[in-house]
Specification:
With 158 residues, the chain is mostly beta strands. The protein contains no helices and ten strands. It is globular and about 60 Å long.
């Protein structure tokens, strides 16, 4: 700039990516993990993973979902609100596929709960202790304590 200011490094960019088929629940659905390797002007690298679900809809393969996995594991605690409805679940699972090893996941009115990688909707009361889940947090505010606390956009139940 005119004053000679600099931010120190350039914005990161994608250096490479790798696509891996990870699940094919049936002939009309396929799920891929796309690992992006990012770099910047310092040559530092880090990976991020997006999960892409494609569906065969009347002969055309279309993207059904693009999700990241913020936490993946087993529900170890279910917390009810004053209305006796499920307010949150605590998920624990040590996996490199997820951003966090554990998290408190808040259930909002617009949280989508699906059976596996299908679009079959489930209800909050289907979330029980011992249930395996993958959670994609909503974009927006998140309590940056550990373990993190955030509202779920999507919960997939396995």
């Amino acid at each position: 700039s005119a004053m000679g200011w600099t931010t120190g490094t350039s914005s990161p960019w994608i250096k490479s990516f790798a696509v891996k088929e990870i699940e094919k629940p049936d002939e009309s659905i396929c799920r891929y993990a796309v690992t992006f390797t990012w770099t910047d002007s310092t040559n530092a690298t880090y990976d991020s993973i997006q999960y892409i679900t494609v569906k065969n809809t009347e002969g055309s393969w279309l993207v059904g979902a693009i999700e990241k996995i913020d936490v993946k594991g087993e529900i170890t605690k279910v917390t009810l609100g004053d209305d006796n409805q499920i307010k949150s679940v605590f998920v624990e699972g040590k996996t490199t596929e997820a951003a966090y090893g554990e998290a408190t996941v808040f259930i909002a009115a617009d949280t989508k709960i699906y059976q596996g990688y299908t679009n079959t909707e489930m209800k909050p009361e289907d979330l029980k202790t011992g249930t395996s889940v993958e959670v994609n947090f909503k974009d927006g505010p998140m309590l940056m304590i550990y373990p993190p606390q955030a509202e779920a956009a999507v919960i997939r139940v396995f």
